[in-house]
Amino acid sequence: MQAIRSILVVIEPEHSESLALKRAKLIAGVTQAHLHLLVCDRKHDHSAMLSVLKAALIQDGYSVTTEQAWNETLQETIVDVQQAEGCGLVIKQHFPDSPLKKALLTPADWKLLRSCPTPVLLVKTSKPWTGGVILAAVDVGNTDGEHRTLHATLIDHGYDIASLAKASLHVISAHPSPMLSAADPSLQLSETIEARYREQCKAFQAEFDIDDAHLHIEEGPADVLIPFMAHKLQAAVTVIGTVARSGLSGALIGNTAEVVLDALESDVLVLKPDEVMDHLEEVVSHH
């Protein structure tokens, strides 16, 4: 996060109290990143609002540029500008369609998460980050190369946000329930699974410097446990990663993430492994 030189902030003109901008200011205040404010609009009639925002930010010591753009869809516009400006992070506020769908992400948000080659911070609440809890969701049981690098990215970003918001980092890892049909009899006993899992966690904790009080190991499906733990800890931000299914950029985000993202009552930082980012970067640049 410290390495991010420039942040793309998506501004929605009808919501002048932009939570996306509030989060961007907090991050840029610490990292000195440049802020590029974008209004996605065909008509380009928000110059006055953007110049007011820009003037206020410059007065507060931020480095700022603004833009109005439109290219067919919201997510394409955002990704185009992210590419053109070289932004390392995209921040967008999630606006519910209706009270009934309050949590559910809009199709545009999903498409953005799938197609954006950089981390995306979706702001879902107005809860202050400062002094709060940052929750990173990690699949400790998966120790293949791709997961290991993703774990490192998740924890690094988690620590970064925690340090800039003076918050504390907690980690949740969900592990599968015992399988009665498992060929290996030891996998049928929950104590054995638990013990084996705890053992893997010890190595993970040593590597990333996370003590027992900040590691939450729960048995069951991740899509239920992650929102449950975020709610229980009153997390301000949940950091989650998605592992690609090779070659299908459309399926980067599986069902687990979809359910988790919709159920979370916190802001969400969505990260992808480096190779996926590179793949998306390639896809996007060939458009």
Characterise this structure.
- By secondary structure, this protein is an alpha/beta fold.
- The chain has 2 domains: 6-93, HUPs (Rossmann fold); 133-285, Rossmann fold, CATH 3.40.50.
- It has helices at 19-31, 47-59, 74-85, 107-115, 145-164, 190-208, 222-232, 255-263, 274-285, and strands at 6-10, 34-40, 64-69, 89-93, 120-123, 133-137, 168-175, 215-219, 237-241, 267-271.
- A 10-stranded mixed sheet has the order 3-2-1-4-5-10-9-6-7-8, sandwiched between helices.
- Strand 4 (89-93), helix 4 (107-115) and strand 5 form a beta-alpha-beta unit.
- Helix 3 (74-85) runs parallel beside helix 4 (107-115).
- The longest helix is centred in the middle third of the chain and has 20 residues, at 145-164.
Helix and strand pattern: EHEHEHEHEEHEHEHEHEH
So what's the oligomer here?
single chain
Named at the architecture level, the CATH assignment of the largest domain is 3-Layer(aba) Sandwich
Largest sheet: 10 strands, mixed
**Highest-level CATH class of the largest domain:** Alpha Beta
What is the fold named in CATH at topology level of the largest domain?
Rossmann fold
Radius of gyration, CA atoms, in whole angstroms: 20 Å
Helix content: 40-55%
